[in-house]
Write a structure and sequence with these properties.
It contains eleven helices and no strands. It is mainly α and 284 residues long. α8 crosses α9.
């Protein structure tokens, strides 16, 4: 964990230098948050999603599904009634969060190999995210669908190797493949890169972060989305992992804010899961 922290700090400094961000002007006022009515409602939805996840994990998945469905209905109705366009856009984009759990819990996946759960779940999520993006009037470049500065993005992507090892040390999952060979690895690796890598980053650091920043401001918007992202990892039953994911989400959000691109965090996220489920389990 010390090596990971040292690497991320070094990467932060290099990114600042490479992209001429060393002269960041951060006044105390930027760290203050004046809570408006719309922000309170967004925070209530965050708490409701957290409660629904806890019900899913600690009570019964079916009741968790019901709770997420209630949240989904509430945010869709609220988005239709909200007068302020910024809050309306944030609330509508929040619909994607309970939808993640509704699709994952509602799909009949029992007799399907686990690696194929991801495309089955994430293809509808990708379609829903594109629909929300179009409704909100967001353009592809505005939500990070560009390559940005390739050296910077590739440097961010490399962080996935350390993040994957670090998360394995926390969760220690069983491998999703029978043996560590190129024939066994390449397709699951591609699935992780496109599903957990691209689709999740498109949802959280793309569409959601843009709407959250418009309401909360840059840093608090990133924190808000990072909390949402971390909450969806409660199912691993590890508080350490939730904290770890929250910190990583802050890093990813910061990178997207500074570079305007999802490419690097997509690589990092995908590589993290490739190492976590396909590679590192064979070495420990």
């Amino acid at each position: 964990m010390f090596i990971l922290a040292l690497f991320l700090c070094s990467l932060f400094i290099w990114l600042l230098y490479e992209t001429k961000w060393l002269t960041i002007r951060l006044s105390a006022g930027q760290l203050l948050l004046v809570i408006t009515a719309g922000m309170k409602e967004a925070i209530i939805y965050l708490l409701a999603i957290t409660a629904a996840e806890l019900v899913t994990v600690l009570v019964q998945p079916m009741w968790g599904l019901v709770c997420h469905a209630i949240v989904l209905i509430a945010v869709v109705m609220h988005s239709a009634l909200a007068s302020d366009s910024r809050y309306r856009h944030l609330v509508l984009s929040l619909a994607l969060v309970p939808l993640v759990r509704i699709i994952s819990l509602g799909m009949p996946l029992v007799d399907i190999p686990q690696i194929w759960w991801y495309p089955i779940i994430y293809v509808p999520l990708l379609a829903a995210t594109i629909v929300v993006m179009r409704i909100l009037g967001q353009r592809a470049r505005e939500v990070g669908l560009n390559f940005g500065s390739l050296p910077v993005q590739l440097a961010v992507g490399l962080s996935g190797f350390l993040l994957g090892v670090a998360e394995y040390l926390i969760l220690a999952p069983q491998p999703m493949i029978a043996e560590l060979t190129w024939q066994e690895v390449w397709l699951p690796a591609l699935i992780f890169l496109m599903c957990t890598g691209f689709v999740e980053e498109f949802i959280f650091r793309g569409v959601l972060q843009r709407t959250a920043v418009a309401v909360f401001g840059s840093w608090w918007g990133i924190i808000y989305v990072s909390l949402l992202f971390a909450v969806l990892h409660v199912g691993f039953l590890s508080l350490i992992d939730v904290v770890f994911v929250f910190i990583v989400a802050l890093f990813f959000g910061w990178v997207v804010k500074k570079t305007g691109s999802l490419f690097g965090v997509t690589l990092a996220h995908g590589i993290t899961n490739i190492l976590l489920y396909l590679v590192v389990p064979f070495f420990f």
